[in-house]
Structure to design on (569 residues):
């Protein structure tokens, strides 16, 4: 990016700093993580993990929550991403989310089940409470599975540091790249939740980092490490199994790897790298086999992932302008507000092309086309109930990688340095808004207020009108998530409780009061440690202790690497 590939990029100092980045981000994420699923889709994903662990089946059942979900679907009501099984399994119901999400969570579920045996009193208190009228179950299993996104979000930030170093960025700017991704974008609110986009993003970017490691070996006329090649294929497969709609992005990464590996072999005068390609792509093909087999087992068709007619070709045949503007500049879901640091990709892109560095710009452009464009065409471009355009989260690490190189180039120029710092500050403000107030709270209050602002005409179906209001609110500054979240927080911090005047919160004319519908949306109960204390009467010290230990670990790691960082400047 700013210079040739760094020959010392894998030295111990960089690994030490990568672990320091991981510890800092994990401390922030654990301090604010939700633990319990924050929306129905996330609960369905957990129940799939639970069914796999308890019954060895993807079919939901065996817990109070699963039975309630199945009961709703049995009645033909909407609200869950669940579908009836194939002929012969008509009485079984399966999530239509990717199977990679529950499979990856099995070790965390097992750890939660083990810890639950040590604290039966907390488990009993949890089972004595309800959520949406349904008895709860498996507290520690929920809690530990909820650790997945904090862990994977922190891993992605650490991988960004590693990738920036391998591309020649000096250490302090590589550190800024990794830490700012985790704390100055909507990656933070996403990492504290439980939906699948964080896992898909981590797996896709891990595949890129492992590919770069193998390519670096190939350029040095060395045989790429087996762990890099196998890890690349497995990470690609996991990204696909987690979110099958990322298949075009996976294909772009495969093409990038193949073209560059073959080019490196030719430049070194070596034979066609058939062995390396076979080892690297075999795990991905194995994951494809798992995808086809699980689809056939559940729905009777290897190519049927459970979406049925919901996501056919017609899903993409629509005017793109609303989605394009929505995911870029809309005040309620635009990347301009939720990840403003990606603007720094533009000067890097121009500079790289001027220097005839085409490989990485081509990869970024290919991913923008393969992942970005399809998700601007679909009606749910905003990511349904989420904070920021979560469907585009897998793109953010690839765009954010340019930030380290751009900072290094502009740091000596005061005005440009100030502009970059302001962009990152804006990202931190919007990220904190999504952490201090959980996104279902504002979306719930927004829809209540939208019914007042835009009443339903008699001839319009209620559900259609709700969907229209939901999208309309994304483009209305009064309902814009980052700033509405801060107004909700300030209202609570001033001791005014959970009843919000629509005049103050959303600047509407009527003097009406609205209140969050769900118990977990009140106060700070969306935070796992607050929920443990207030709902279950548990101790208040585990969260601060764990986060303090992580910050201590990061400090020790930084001290160990301090000399190398100062030496590079």
């Amino acid at each position: 990016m700013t210079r040739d590939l760094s020959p010392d990029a894998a030295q111990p100092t960089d690994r030490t700093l990568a672990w320091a980045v991981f510890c800092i981000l994990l401390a922030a994420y654990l301090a604010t993580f939700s633990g319990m699923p924050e929306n129905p889709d996330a609960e369905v994903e957990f129940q799939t993990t639970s069914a796999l662990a308890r019954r060895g089946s993807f079919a939901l059942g065996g817990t109070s929550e699963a039975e309630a979900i199945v009961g709703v679907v049995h009645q033909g009501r909407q609200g869950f991403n669940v579908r009836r099984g194939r002929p012969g399994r008509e009485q079984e119901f399966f999530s239509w989310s990717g199977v990679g999400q529950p499979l990856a969570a099995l070790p965390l579920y097992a750890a939660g089940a083990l810890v639950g045996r040590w604290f039966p009193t907390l488990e009993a208190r949890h089972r004595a409470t309800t959520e949406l009228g349904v008895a709860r179950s498996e507290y520690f299993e929920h809690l530990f599975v909820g650790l997945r996104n904090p862990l994977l979000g922190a891993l992605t930030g650490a991988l960004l540091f590693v990738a920036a170093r391998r591309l020649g960025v000096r250490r302090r700017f590589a550190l800024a790249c990794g830490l700012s991704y985790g704390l100055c974008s909507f990656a933070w609110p996403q990492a504290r939740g439980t939906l699948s986009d964080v896992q898909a993003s981590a797996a896709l970017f891990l595949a890129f980092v492992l590919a770069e490691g193998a390519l670096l070996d190939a350029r040095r006329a060395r045989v790429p490490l087996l762990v890099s090649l196998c890890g690349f294929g497995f990470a690609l497969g996991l990204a696909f199994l987690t979110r099958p709609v990322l298949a075009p992005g996976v294909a772009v990464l495969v093409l990038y790897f193949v073209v560059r590996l073959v080019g490196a072999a030719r430049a070194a005068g070596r034979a066609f790298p058939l062995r390396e390609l076979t080892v690297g792509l075999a795990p991905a093909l194995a994951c494809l086999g798992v995808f086809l087999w699980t689809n056939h087992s559940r729905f009777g068709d290897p190519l049927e992932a459970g979406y049925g007619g919901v996501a056919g070709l017609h899903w993409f045949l629509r005017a793109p302008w609303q989605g394009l503007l929505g995911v870029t500049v809309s005040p309620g879901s635009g990347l301009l507000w939720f990840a403003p640091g990606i603007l720094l990709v533009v000067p890097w892109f121009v500079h790289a092309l001027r220097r005839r560095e085409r490989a990485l710009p081509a990869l970024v452009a290919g991913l923008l086309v393969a992942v970005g464009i399809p998700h601007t065409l679909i009606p749910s471009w905003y990511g349904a109930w989420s904070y920021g355009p979560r469907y585009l989260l897998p793109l953010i690490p690839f765009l954010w990688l340019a930030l380290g190189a751009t900072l290094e180039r502009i740091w000596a120029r005061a005005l440009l340095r100030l502009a970059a710092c302001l962009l990152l500050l804006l990202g931190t403000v919007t990220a904190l808004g999504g952490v201090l107030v959980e996104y279902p709270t504002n979306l719930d209050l927004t829809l209540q207020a939208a019914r007042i602002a835009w009443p339903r005409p008699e001839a319009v179906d209620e559900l259609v009108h709700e969907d229209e209001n939901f999208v309309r609110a994304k483009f209305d500054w009064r309902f814009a998530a980052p700033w509405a979240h801060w107004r909700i927080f300030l209202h609570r911090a001033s001791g005014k409780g959970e009843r919000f005047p629509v005049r103050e919160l959303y600047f509407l004319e009527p003097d009406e009061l609205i209140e969050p519908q769900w118990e977990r949306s009140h106060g700070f109960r969306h935070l796992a440690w607050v929920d443990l204390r207030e709902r279950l009467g548990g101790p208040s010290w585990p969260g601060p202790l764990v986060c303090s230990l992580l910050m201590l670990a990061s400090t020790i790691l930084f001290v160990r690497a301090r000399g190398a960082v100062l030496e590079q400047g």
